[in-house]
Amino acid sequence: MVAQTLEKPNVNRSSEAQKVYDAVIIGTGFAGLCMGIRLKKSGIDSFVILEKGNGIGGTWRDNTYPGAACDVQSHLYSFSFAPKSNWSRLFGPQKEILQYMNDCTDQFGIRSHIRTNSEVSGAWFDEKDGIWEISTKEGTTYKAKAVVSGTGGLSRPVLPNIKGIDTFKGAKFHSAKWDHSYDIQGKTVAVIGTGASAIQIVPTIAPLVGNLKLFQRTPAWIIPKPDSNIAGSVKGIFKFIPPLRWLFRKAIYWLNEIGVLAFAINPKLMKIFEKFAKSFIKKSIHSEELQQKLTPNYTIGCKRILLSNDYYPALNRENVDLITDGIQEITSSGVKTKDGKEHKVDAIIFATGFQAAEAVSPFEIRGRDGKLLADVWEDGAEAYLGTTVSGFPNLFMIVGPNTGLGHSSMILMIESQVQYTLQGIRYLRKKNIKFIDVRKDIQDKYNTEIQKRLSKSVWLTGGCVSWYNTSTGRNTTLWPGFTFEFKARTFFLSPKDYEFVRVDGKAKRPGIGSRFSMALNATFG
Ligand code: NAP
C-alpha cells in the first residue's frame, strides 16, 4: 500500500505554472509520440510532451543491449500514417527503429513540444477547475485539461530479489541499462534470464566472451525468426509503388492476426505450434540432455513465444553453459546454485524483465477526492478500453491495462487508443465542458467481460507463471481478441459511457451527433 500523502509539490512560479495546456503527454515512446503527432495533425498545438530521459524513444532508447531488435515485422511495427519503404530487414534492429522515431518526431514537427530531462513526479486532478497539475522532479509544474500517460509497460527494469545481489564485486547491469563502457571481450559472464531480451543478447555476445554462463529458471518456447535483409530492389518497389508496400503490411497484419485463434479463442490449437517448436529444438540442439533442459513444460504461448535463429546454435557452443540448477544466492565473486556450486564470473547481466503487471503507476496520480491510482489498482490495474479509469477524469492511458499483445504490433493498439483519446481531448476543448469521467458501471462491465474471455486464453490455462499476470493470477496486461475488434471499440468515444461535467456544474452529455463528428474529426481532422 502506498502511503497517503495529500501534499502537492511547491508550485513553480514559472510561466509554465500559469499556462493551461490542452494536454500534457508523458513519455516519448511510440505512445507519446503518436499522441503528439495526432494532436498536431488535427490542429491542436497546445500540448507538451514530458520525457524523463535526455532523448526520445522510450524502450527503444533504453534497450541498447547487443543484438537488440524487434520481434515484430517492421513494416507493421511502424505508424500506419508514416510508412517507411527502406527498412533494412524484415525485423528492424533497435538503432533503425530509434532513428525512425526521431524521423517521425521531425517530420510531424513535434520536437519543439518535447521537454527532455523532465521526469514526472506526480499528477493531481483539481476537481473544482477540471485541471491537472503535473510536477516534475526537476521542479517545474505544468497545468493541463488532459493528461495522456504513455509511460509504457516495459519502462521499469526489474532486478531479481536474489540473496546477496548487492555483494557482487564485479560488473553488473540490467539488459535495459547496458553498460557499454564495460568490455566483455574474453570475460566470464553470467546472464540471468532466458526471455525475449536474453535470447537476443546471448548469441550476440557468445562469440566475444571467454565463457558465458546462462542461468535459466524456465525455458521459453522458441520458433524460427523469418528474418532477412530486404533487397534494394524491394525497397525501390515499396518506394515507387506504395500500394504494394500497403499490401505487404496488410499481409503481415492478417498472418499475425490468425494467432489470436490459438492464443485467446481455442488454446488447443497451440498444439500445432508446440509440435513445430519441439522439432525446432531437436533439429537445432545437439545434446539430448540440453534438448530436455530447453523443452518447456507449459503450453506454448502461455509466456511470450520467442523468435530466434541464432539462440539455439549459441547454446551448442563450447564456451556457453546452460545452468538450470536454480540460483541460491549471489556471492562477491559469482553465482551460487542450489546444488552448492559457485560459478565464478567477472560480470552479471540481468535479463530479468520489467515490472509490468503489478498495480503500480510510476509516479503518484491522484484523481477525484484525492484518490490515489496505486490504491485503486491495489488488486490489479484495470481501465475502460485500457484507456480511462473511473474517478480519474481527463486522464488517458496509452498502453494501459489489458492492451498488450502476444501476437502482433503494439503500434496497432497505440493508434487505436490515440484515436479514442483524441476525441476525449476534443470534447474537453469545448468551452462548457469541465471534465469527463468514465462511468464505474461501464468500466466494471467491460472488465468482467475481458476477464471472462481471458480465463479461457492460453495465458491463464497454459500452466506457466508469467509477467502477464499479477501474483494473484489475474491478467492485467493482455487484450484477449483481434486488434481489429479493439480498433472498432475505440473508434468512437461514446458520450454515454462517461459522466460529462460542465463548467456550470451540470452533468449533461453531448448528443449522438457529437459522437460521430468527434470521431470523424479525430480521424480526418
Ligand atoms: P522477460 O521476458 O520477463 O524475461 C525475464 C527472464 O528473467 C525470464 O527468463 C525469467 O524467468 C528470468 N528471471 C526473472 N527473475 C529471475 C530470478 N530471480 N532468477 C532467475 N531467473 C529470473 O523479460 P525480457 O526478456 O526483458 O522481455 C520482456 C518483454 O520485453 C518481452 O516479453 C517483450 O514484450 C519485450 N521485448 C521485446 C523485444 C522485441 O524484440 N520486440 C525484445 C526484448 C524484449 P521465468 O521465466 O522463470 O520468470
Automatic annotation (TrEMBL):
Q: Which domain of life is it from?
A: Bacteria
SUPFAM superfamilies linked to this entry: FAD/NAD(P)-binding domain (SSF51905)
Q: Which residues form a coiled coil?
A: none
User: What's the protein here called?
Assistant: NAD(P)/FAD-dependent oxidoreductase
